[in-house]
Amino acid sequence: MARKVWKGAIVFGLVHVPVTLYPAAKPNELDFDLLDSRDMAPIGYERINKRTGKPVAWEHIVKGYEYEDGSYVVMSEEDFRQANPKATQTVEILAFVDGGSIEAQYFDTPYRLVPDKRGEKGYTLLRETLKRTGKVGIAQVVIRTKQYLAVLLPQNNYMVMQTLRYADEILSEAELEQPPSTLKAAGVNAREVRMAEQLVEDMTEPWKPEQYKDTYRNDLLARVKQKIKAGETEVVTQPEAGQPGAGGAQVIDLMAALKRSIESGKRRAPSARAPAARSARGTAKPARRGSPSKQRKRA
Fold first, then answer.
1. Where are the domains of the chain?
2. Closest CA to 115 of 98, 97, 128, 132
3. Long-range contacts of 128-133 (CB under 8 A, 24+ apart)
4. pLDDT given at position 265
5. Residues 258-262: contacts with CB within 8 Å, 24+ apart?
6. Which terminus has fewer CB within 10 Å in the chain: N or C?
7. Predicted confidence (pLDDT) per residue in 254-289, tens digit
8. Model-level pTM?
9. Distances (CA, A) of 107 to 101, 123, 163, 196
10. Which of 258, 196, 234 is closest to 40 using CA atoms?
11. Are 161 and 108 in contact (CB under 8 A)?
């Protein structure tokens, strides 16, 4: 059973639905320790008392707010709850919006909302109403010590709560070099458009997330085992000769690339497409955050 993150209620209007919040995703990364290259000793992030220089156990650590230089107010878990009891105990839906109107860059971490026994009727009503109307709920919720913007959306028999980034957390596009806004401005002709549409059509298939695998993680593990077998357990290696390096920018023949892609797709039977090949076509994955409980640096 997944570890619960938070317990409270969904609130919209006068409706109150008791729920429990569970993680809907987990990191699946390889952990790499920091080492001192001189003697291979591990280097860790220690909880050090700056006055004594000695490590401090978690049981002795409290949160303090420095209201003026050198003076702190110690905050307990109860203080965080009492700051705004309603905010720390509810997923308060502020509005409903069209399901497809939230841009991709706002999405962050997914959770599953599970109803308590006395909340099953209201939970089911909200889930099915969102399905029927094509709407999602925009809400605010406090998890631990931070208030998040979030979206509630139905998924199968559950509701998912996905935290969102606030608008001021999104970097402005004005700082970037703007790409062409139209096909004509980019110099794309009608034949290239038709071939691109044909390629997309040829590569279209049902969304099956389980068929996409993190092949690079397995490749890293294979490389680690290879180095162990070779006895290279304390050696920092440089890239091998012959590996591709940084080079000048290439001019891409768009028409030729489209043509080769379509012809390549026709030579392969749909059932022969390997998951690794599909993965190589570019599946976007959310950035994962390292667990604060691990005293190590993720590579």
1. 6-26+80-167, 184-235+254-280
2. 128
3. 128/154, 130/96, 130/99, 130/154, 130/159, 133/96
4. 72
5. 258/192, 258/195, 258/196, 258/199, 259/195, 261/199, 262/195, 262/198, 262/199, 262/202
6. N
7. 677 667 777 777 666 555 444 444 444 444 444 444
8. 0.62
9. 12, 23, 6, 28
10. 234
11. no
The residue type found at 95 is A
Phi then psi dihedrals of residue 173, to 5 deg? -75, -15
Spatial CA neighbour of 60 closest among 80, 52, 68: 52
Contact 262, 198 (CB under 8 A): yes
- Give Cβ neighbours of residue 251 (< 8 Å, ≥ 6 apart): none
Give residue 127's pLDDT. 95
Residue 121, phi then psi, degrees to nearest 5: -65, -50
Q: Which of 58, 29, 33, 28 is nearest to 44 (CA)?
A: 33
Adjacent-strand bridge partners of 151: 138, 162
Name the more confident of 158 and 270. 158
Listed as own residue / partner, the contacts of 278-286 with beta carbons closer than 8 Å and 24 or more positions apart are: 278/211, 278/212, 279/212, 279/213, 279/215, 281/203, 283/212, 284/104, 286/25, 286/107, 286/108, 286/109
Q: Going by CATH, does the domain composed of 6-26+80-167 fall within 2.60.40.650?
A: no
The β-bridge relationship of strands 158-164 and 107-115 is: antiparallel
User: Residue 12 in contact with residue 93, Cβ under 8 Å?
Assistant: yes
